[in-house]
Amino acid sequence: MSITLTTKQEILDYLLHQGQASAQELAQALAVSPQAIRRHLKDLEAEQLIRYEVQANGVGRPHNHYSLTDIGRDRLRTLPNTTSGRNEFALELLDTLTETLGHSQMEDILHQQWKRKAATYRQQLGEKPLMERLAGLVELRQAEGYRAEFFPVDGDHQPPQKFVLTEYNCAIANVAKAFPSICDHELEMFAAALPDCQVTRTHWLVNGEHRCGYLIAWAGLG
């Protein structure tokens, strides 16, 4: 039974990072027979953790390509299941404050909150080299429930000075849907936490992509 659960977890993790995949691609990547993969996919679909769409791949019959549902993404959060309950409470609290204070004032409060968070990040990251600060930032985000990682994207500089920070889920997805400006504040937060860098959004879960991505480049580059 443990093997089955492990394989299903590997399927979910693969889809989280790749966005989508066919049964054959999953079988090859995970070194599992196509028949076994299809059984696991059927189970995961029944649990509403994945969905599929039929895609034509040139010549030959179309294939099902699988991707995570919102429920599947929630299953892969780093934090325990209590995260969902906290998010619901936070969303209800924000709704109440909006009704009491008005939307404009609520936006100002959210902006101030993200500025405070950026200051906290900056203090915790210190004045270390950029790669070390990014490693620390990823640890902070992971502790908050984000499936985060980073990697260098320039081979011309040693040590590298240009990176991509990727988050494969949103730990506050319900709140962000209700208050979309939070995503803009998050971009500002990363820029403020890394004041010697240029931070640009490259991918966005809100736009239907399977991850949020940020290009982070040392401002003195070039």
From TrEMBL:
Superkingdom of origin: Bacteria
Domain Helix-turn-helix type span(s) in chain numbering: 9-48
SUPFAM superfamilies per the UniProt record, alphabetical: Winged helix' DNA-binding domain
InterPro entries the record matches: ArsR-like_HTH, HTH_11, SUF_FeS_clus_asmb_SufR_cyano, WH-like_DNA-bd_sf, WH_DNA-bd_sf
NCBIfam families cross-referenced by the UniProt entry: SufR_cyano
Protein name per Swiss-Prot or TrEMBL: Iron-sulfur cluster biosynthesis transcriptional regulator SufR
Organism for this UniProt entry: Pseudocalidococcus azoricus BACA0444
